[in-house]
């Protein structure tokens, strides 16, 4: 899942080298924290959160194949 989020984020932003994804795994769920450059934050979130919602939808579809739950948090510095 971490690689999927990294791939999606790197294709969206202007500074792909600044993309960082941290994964924390629990028993039935994983939490992914996405950090991007400050000027790319709007690109990842999108208008009214549409891009972030789309990324979360793709993640949940991929996670459902393994019977896990994935939570994506976009971290703002």
What does this structure look like?
- The protein has 77 residues and is α+β, with helices and mostly antiparallel strands.
- The protein has one domain (2-75): K homology (KH) domain (GMP Synthetase, Chain A, domain 3).
- It is built from three helices and three strands.
- It has a three-stranded mixed β-sheet.
- The chain starts with a helix and ends with a strand.
- The mean pLDDT is 94.
Tally of helical runs: 3
Supply Rg. 12 Å
Query: Could you say which structural class the secondary elements and strand pairing correspond to?
Result: alpha+beta
Mean pLDDT: 94
CATH class: Alpha Beta
SSE ordering = HEEHHE
- In this structure, how is the largest beta sheet organized? 3 strands, mixed
Shape: globular
- Percentage beta strand: 25-35%
The poorly predicted ranges are none
End-to-end gap: 23 Å
What level of helicity do the residues show? Answer: 40-55%
Would you count the extended β strands for me? 3
What fold name goes in the CATH topology slot? GMP Synthetase, Chain A, domain 3
User: For the largest beta sheet, what order do the strands appear in spatially?
Assistant: 1-2-3
CATH architecture: 2-Layer Sandwich
- Count structural domains: 1
User: CATH homologous superfamily name?
Assistant: K homology (KH) domain
């Amino acid at each position: 899942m971490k690689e999927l989020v990294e791939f999606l984020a790197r294709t969206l932003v202007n500074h792909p080298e600044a993309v960082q994804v941290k994964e924390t795994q629990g028993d039935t769920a994983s939490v992914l924290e996405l950090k991007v450059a400050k000027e790319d934050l709007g690109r990842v979130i999108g208008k009214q959160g549409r891009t972030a919602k789309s990324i979360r939808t793709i993640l949940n579809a991929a996670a459902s194949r393994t019977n896990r739950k994935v939570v994506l948090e976009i971290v703002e510095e």
